[in-house]
Amino acid sequence: MTLLSGSNDYRNQDNQPASNRANNTELASESAKVVGDLAIFDLDHTLLGGDSNMIWTDYLYERGLVDDSFISQRDKFFADYKAGSLDFTAYMAHMFTPFARFDYQTLCRYRDDCFKTQVAPKLYPQGRELVEAHRQAGDTLLIISATNEFLIEPVCRALGVSEIIGVQLERSKPDNTDNANNANSNFTGKHIGTPSFGAGKQVRLEQWLDNQGRELSDYGRSYFYSDSINDAPLLETVTDAITVNPDDKLKALAQTRGWQVLNFE
Description:
Blueprint lengths: L17 H16 L4 E4 L10 H11 L5 H16 L4 H8 L8 H16 L5 H12 L3 E9 H11 L3 E9 L15 E6 L6 H14 L9 E5 L5 H4 L4 E5 L3 H10 L2 E3 L3
Parallel strand pairs: 1-2, 1-5, 2-3, 5-6, 6-7
Antiparallel strand pairs: 3-4
């Protein structure tokens, strides 16, 4: 990891020739555009030894909150995912139905318990160390996932990552208010915006950068860690593509591109 910092000393530039001061001013202007490095992490099978949606829906099933038919259809979607033929819109419509059946506070209790008992133990120690290494280097940390942001939130809190990009769940607006993001608003079972899946991750990253008032090139280096061939568009975009426990297709691409391969256990 390289943390870019101003290596030129401008403190005594008044004593330098005018031509040198002009050059240093230009260098300072260019340096101001650089905001350090950006470290982007996929979640499932990259930082987490499993699939967060599978873990969540198994948790619900074990408590009788979803039935056999729900799990059967879920498993069909995951088979399609492995075959590379997933209809992500249909998948989301199915996976988000439980969110519309419970109020927000109840879902928070289920989610937090699921994280504590099922998700946290499956976070890779090497992944924690990797995130911490980037933090110590002063990098901006971002988790981007095809999982919805509601489920990602406790993971990010545990890892100390404040920037999240995931599928955004729609919430209802309580009576007499325009604010859908409060304790009295519930999920509708639908999503909003561009899903952060496949090429959608690149779209959502560009939106995130716009909100920051930055471009990817403003960062000295940009890292992206992922396990899936579905993330190839974003891996091709960053300066440093690193694969973690890559699937067969991504492993082959990594060998072709000369990308680093990490194996977490």
